[in-house]
Amino acid sequence: MRPQQLQLYLGTTMVHQTAWENLGDLAAALETLFGKLPRRGPFVDCVEFILDHAYLDYLIVPWQQGVTTPADRDQFALALHQQQQGRLTGDLRVAFFDSEYQKPGFAALLEKSLFELMRAAARRRRLRFCGCRTLFAVLCQTLTRKLPANALYACIDARQSSFALRYQHRWHSVFTLHLPAADTAKHLETANGLAGLPPVDRYVIYSDQGLQSARQLPIPAVAVENP
């Protein structure tokens, strides 16, 4: 699901896409989209939503002693998000893409009203609602069986791009940038530099090009001057 565009996939193959304008139109647009499910062929009984970063807030949540249950962890993430925003935030749902013992966790936050709208749309079509995934999750699960020690993950879009970095087997930072039109390499260089890390492995997905656009890009060579 992207701003003003919905795409329907069976596996990794896109079978239909439709436009929508605002959240008031989303339920009807989803109904139209689900109506394009094939009546013959593979049996489809469930749906999963893959969300563009425009609908999510990302957060690196530090390990906190005393936070021992998933509910405590989610509440801590919500409090941290509110503190970082400097204001009261809406009714949000928290999901951790990755969370290891005594290490920072990588969380995504989504408005509960949007989550409920998607779930209701699936139920109207008698489809089992399998939840949501982020483009970062798609990127990691597509290209890396095991999370690398050091990496830069990028979700590239014409309007804005989001970046998540790992360093020394830990999530280091995540942020979104509104960057002028430029090639992907320049975006990655900018993000890597802003994080203050040495060049790391780079994994990219283009939100306007579909799920099969995930790829690994080479680390640029660093020139070394002879003394």
From TrEMBL:
**According to the lineage, what is the superkingdom?**
Bacteria
Q: What is this protein called?
A: Uncharacterized protein
